[in-house]
């Protein structure tokens, strides 16, 4: 018997430019780069992890750098929005002013379900929301980095709901509820791509913003063609390695094609696609990002897991230098 998933673990997206990406997410959004490493399946590309002070599970927004990534053509069967949590509604007013000051594309403060939000985009069109935890309970948030350029009391404390747009709701719902154990809790209506759409809310674990998936069914649109600013996958939290092996067994018994157990060093993983083609990952809460770096210097040098260390010279030769030392 598997235990319930604990919430959102991380979201991984695509950038064309690691340097510009680093500048935006650390200097504008005030997140901490807690790990500068490479995509372990394609070591010629950076994999950057932005998070709270030390990369607590549920706070990581990560990016693969693909220099030749083209434009994203939005559509269905995609991860269509990522939200970032702040402690209260007052913090949203700070972010609105900050976005205005830095000329960041954003919309007015509005509400999604019961929570105040600011929809905005990063310079590559990544679809994001700042979401308030003022009316939220459930999975706890993280702790903003004290050296962030954003004041700690309004800083981002983790990932909020992940938004999926699918062509067949029933297919995704069946995997979320029957396989992954999410609970369908409610639905609400919101304007999505200039149309009023029904949004279905699923939660796991303690629930709340840090453990929700919001699913929109859109039958009248083409499938998304991913590029820069698109999301590659969403990962959900598993307590430990023992539990992850149970999930491998559960997926196998259900006849769901999957990666099996995958060693990622900073956590252990399992990957599979739900029936609409969206990539899901299950990832353990540990060991964490301080496994190979000190807390004070997280993200400042290129970190490689031990099984890639003997290839460091050839890996570094293929990467464009990226200075992430803290001033």
TrEMBL record:
Residue ranges of every copy of the VOC domain listed in the record: 7-144, 158-285
Record's keyword terms, sorted: Dioxygenase, Oxidoreductase
Transmembrane segments: none
One Pfam family of this chain: Glyoxalase
Signal peptide feature range: none
A molecular-function term among this protein's GO annotations: dioxygenase activity
UniProt keyword Oxidoreductase, yes or no: yes
Protein name from the UniProt record: Ring-cleaving dioxygenase
Lineage of producing organism: Bacteria, Bacillati, Bacillota, Bacilli, Bacillales
């Amino acid at each position: 018997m598997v235990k319930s998933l604990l919430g959102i673990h991380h979201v991984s997206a695509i950038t064309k430019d690691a340097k510009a990406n680093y500048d935006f997410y650390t200097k504008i959004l005030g997140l901490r780069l807690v790990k500068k490493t490479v995509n372990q399946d394609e070591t010629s590309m950076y994999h950057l992890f932005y998070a709270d002070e030390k990369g607590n599970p549920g706070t990581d927004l990560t990016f693969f750098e693909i220099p030749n990534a083209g434009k994203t053509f939005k559509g269905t069967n995609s991860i269509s929005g990522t939200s970032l949590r702040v402690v209260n509604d007052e913090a949203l007013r700070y972010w609105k002013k900050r976005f205005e000051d830095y000329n960041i594309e954003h919309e007015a403060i509005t509400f999604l379900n019961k929570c105040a939000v600011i929809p905005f985009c990063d310079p590559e069109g990544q679809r994001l929301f700042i979401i308030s935890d003022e009316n939220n309970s459930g999975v706890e948030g993280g702790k903003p980095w004290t050296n962030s350029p954003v004041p700690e009391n309004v800083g981002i404390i983790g990932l909020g709901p992940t938004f999926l747009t699918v062509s067949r709701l029933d297919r995704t719902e069946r995997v979320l509820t029957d396989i992954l154990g999410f609970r369908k809790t409610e639905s609400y209506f919101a304007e999505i791509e200039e149309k009023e759409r029904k949004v279905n809310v699923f939660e796991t674990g303690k629930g709340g913003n840090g453990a929700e998936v919001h699913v929109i069914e859109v039958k009248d649109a083409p499938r998304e063609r991913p590029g820069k600013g698109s999301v590659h996958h969403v990962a959900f939290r598993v307590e430990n390695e023992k539990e992850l092996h149970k999930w491998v067994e559960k997926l196998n018994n259900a006849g769901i094609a999957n990666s099996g157990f995958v060693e990622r060093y900073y956590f252990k993983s399992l990957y599979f696609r739900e029936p609409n083609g969206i990539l899901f990952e299950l990832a353990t809460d540990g060991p964490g990002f301080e496994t190979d770096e000190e807390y004070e210097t997280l993200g400042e040098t290129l970190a490689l897991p031990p099984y890639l260390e003997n290839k460091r010279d050839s890996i570094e030769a293929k990467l464009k230098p990226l200075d992430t030392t803290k001033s």
